[in-house]
């Protein structure tokens, strides 16, 4: 699991390092600049020149340190300081002074010989301290870096490509597009969330002497990037002396006439993710079609007619007896009473419940029904459903994904999965897990149904929250990557995620 820190948390960690862990800022900057120079050297062609573009803050200070190390190694280095030198931070100022001792002279951008193929541009204009859209000389410097890159020079960004907002992954215009970004100490949200992740190029994290102890002292949401070993490690190896009861029974409340495939995909995904048993409860006129998709699916008919409502409560309570997890929502017939039914059901059940699709839309009008839940609740909205849950526009949700998902999770005391590129899993305790698997081929009908089925299966196998959920998300994405490798992104359909992706994944992980 890789720790990710926001700009404010980086400042707190720096303070902790300086005041309590014997690592003054000047030393952190020295280490950062040295790491930056190392990566810049790797990107250069034989005899390549270096152009280091520095801003007024500590990001510029890192650039000045990198320039010094590059000069010390005998490379041809030009340094440009953009902005008012009188406004330099004390650390940057000190490094400007130190650079003079190495013969480096700050020069105006226009007077530089334009770098080209084989040369490397170090972007040290702005890092985590960017507070507004770059304008004037700063915008010009960013445009120049872009121009040089188009002419063949490689660009390495110090910490964050200048113009990118490190807390969200959103970018101002103009923004540097980098070939590589050197993340100092810890990853930043903007390096892992799109479009930032793409603007960063290859992200290389370097240790700068800010240990884990400093990171443990920061406040606010705790962010992590999930790695393959984390997800694999969550899944238990099956013991010989076990039976289907060991692996849990999932109740799936899904499907309706015309949407029986949704229920089938949830159920098959749960069965292919290790659930011992799966039972679907659905309207009588849909049950046969749901079960016809797979011989392993058991069924319970919901005899009432029309949208799900209070009239289904007793049947659903009976269906939930002896079950270990509930997945509800995909393809259900939704009506005005569906939200109240879900609230009542959750107030009586102790098993973990995953709400997806129309179950989310059903509770969106009155989210307070979720507060009555006895057992743990997991919501798995896509951005449109998240917009309905929060009363925001989809665009607003997408531009503040981290904030929106963590606020909903902590506000309701539930686990929330905000789907999309870089799916976020926020737990009620403030932890947020960023997922890096998956591909655009998974933007296809039924893909979300598969995810809710995997979530249900892992919960039924008694894997704790939130681990079960970020593991399900990681596995679902990697299953998509494996399936896309065989089908192409265009050819990928949701069923492939189950039959090819998940199965290949479990083999790869020895599970
Ligand atoms: N926090 C830490 O522990 C460490 C931070 N370091 C570096 O310090 C960086 C953060 O430094 P700072 O907080 O000084 O911030 P930055 O260097 O990112 O930039 C902040 C400066 O730019 C100005 N500014 C912001 N947006 C502007 C805009 N659009 N136009 C013009 N001026 C603008 C601010 O007023 C401030 O003077 C990190 O990204 C990293 O590179 C490293 O030296 C290592 C240690
Ligand atoms: K930068």
From TrEMBL:
* Residue ranges of every copy of the YjeF N-terminal domain listed in the record: 10-216
User: Entry cofactor note text?
Assistant: Binds 1 potassium ion per subunit.
Residues annotated as binding (6S)-NADPHX are 58-62, 127-133, 159, 262, 331, 382, 449
Report the cofactors.
Answer: K(+); Mg(2+)
Gene3D superfamilies per record? 3.40.1190.20, YjeF N-terminal domain
Q: Name one Pfam family in it.
A: YjeF_N
- PROSITE patterns recorded for this chain? YJEF_C_3 (PS51383), YJEF_N (PS51385)
- Residues annotated as binding AMP: 419-423, 448
InterPro entries to which the protein is assigned, alphabetical: CARKD (IPR000631), Nnr (IPR030677), Ribokinase-like (IPR029056), YjeF_N_dom (IPR004443), YjeF_N_dom_sf (IPR036652)
Alphabetically sorted, this entry's keywords are: ATP-binding, Isomerase, Lyase, Metal-binding, Multifunctional enzyme, NAD, NADP, Nucleotide-binding, Potassium
What Enzyme Commission number does this protein have?
4.2.1.136, 5.1.99.6
UniProt catalytic activity: (6S)-NADHX + ADP = AMP + phosphate + NADH + H(+); (6R)-NADPHX = (6S)-NADPHX; (6S)-NADPHX + ADP = AMP + phosphate + NADPH + H(+); (6R)-NADHX = (6S)-NADHX
Task: Please tell me whether the keyword NADP is annotated for this protein.
Answer: yes
Protein role: Bifunctional enzyme that catalyzes the epimerization of the S- and R-forms of NAD(P)HX and the dehydration of the S-form of NAD(P)HX at the expense of ADP, which is converted to AMP. This allows the repair of both epimers of NAD(P)HX, a damaged form of NAD(P)H that is a result of enzymatic or heat-dependent hydration. Catalyzes the dehydration of the S-form of NAD(P)HX at the expense of ADP, which is converted to AMP. Together with NAD(P)HX epimerase, which catalyzes the epimerization of the S- and R-forms, the enzyme allows the repair of both epimers of NAD(P)HX, a damaged form of NAD(P)H that is a result of enzymatic or heat-dependent hydration.
Q: Which family does it belong to?
A: Belongs to the NnrD/CARKD family.
Q: What is this protein called?
A: Bifunctional NAD(P)H-hydrate repair enzyme
